[in-house]
Structures are given as C-alpha cells and as structure tokens.
Design goal:
Length: 168
C-alpha cells in the first residue's frame, strides 16, 4: 500500500526533472545587432587646409529630418560618433550643427543600399548597408570623405570623415 501511494508522485517528479533537463535554453545574442554609421570629425587648422587634425566637437548634434530616428548629441565632446540609417528606405537626412546658438545647421543626405543579414538564431536578422553617396550643404562642413562604404555591426570601422571649416 505504501509503495502505491509514492509511485505516482515519484513518476511525476522524475518526468518533471526530465522535462526541465531537456528544455533548451535560448542563447543570448552576444553580437551587436545594430549597424551604425561611425563618423569622425576633422578641423582644418590653417587657411590652406593642409594640416587637418582630429578634433572634438563642442555641442555637436545630429538631428534626423524624419521623426523615425533619434537625435544624436555628441556628449561628452568626442572626435567620432555614430548615427543610424533607416532600414525602411535607402535614403535618410540628418541636420548637423556644432553649436546650436551660433550657426545654421548643415543638411547631410545619405543614399545607400539595404541588405538583410542573418546573424544567428539568437540574434535573428538585421540590416547592413552599402553607402552609395553622401551629399551635404556647406555651411559648417567643408567636405565629406567616405572611408568605408560597407556599414555592418563592426564597431571598430570608421565609415565617414567630416571636414569642418576652420572658423568653426
């Protein structure tokens, strides 16, 4: 009689242990999922523009023209920063200003190809980008140079160099 009383709870306990032991744990996504455009800023030190130097940008801000993206304030001041590209279209615009009180912002337009990329089962899909061209007004920005047109989740690759007029 005692054996029968403990048999059913014992079997249920063993089944519960087997169920817990066989359940697969989801692996966390350990790779960066977002592909961000990494931008560096260079000031011209002379009028001849022959001695560019990396510089920090006091009060620099990138504002998206569309409301789908968040604005990026480069704070604390640093020589490079990241902005995101829109996965919905092959085009996006940002306003760039170095000091919101003194200067009119430049408009920076990015044109690119989107490529869906499978990262892993844990990370799923993300978009990588290939920059076709970048256009800007030239109020604060002297020129732009694409260093690497392949925008992936590699956080060590600088993609774009902004050259700022000497007077800013």
């Amino acid at each position: 009689m005692i054996r029968n009383r403990y048999l059913l709870p014992g079997i249920l306990f063993v089944l519960a242990l087997v169920s817990v032991a066989c359940t697969q744990q989801r692996q966390p996504c350990l790779t960066p999922k977002t592909a961000s455009l990494i931008i560096g800023a260079i000031h011209f030190k002379t009028d001849t523009s022959t001695v560019p130097v990396d510089t920090v940008l006091p009060h620099a801000t990138f504002y998206p023209v569309s409301s789908q993206q968040n604005f990026v304030t480069v704070y604390p001041p640093q020589a490079s920063f990241t902005v995101s590209l829109s996965p919905d279209t092959g085009y996006c615009q940002w306003l760039f200003e170095t000091d919101s009180l003194k200067h009119t912002p430049d408009t920076v337009s990015f044109y690119y190809q989107r490529n869906a990329k499978f990262l892993s089962n844990a990370c799923r899909f993300t978009y990588f980008y290939s920059i076709d061209s970048i256009h800007t007004t030239h109020l604060i920005i002297d020129s732009l140079r694409i260093l690497n047109n392949s925008v992936t989740n590699n956080v060590n690759t600088k993609h774009l160099q902004i050259y700022i007029h000497r007077s800013f």
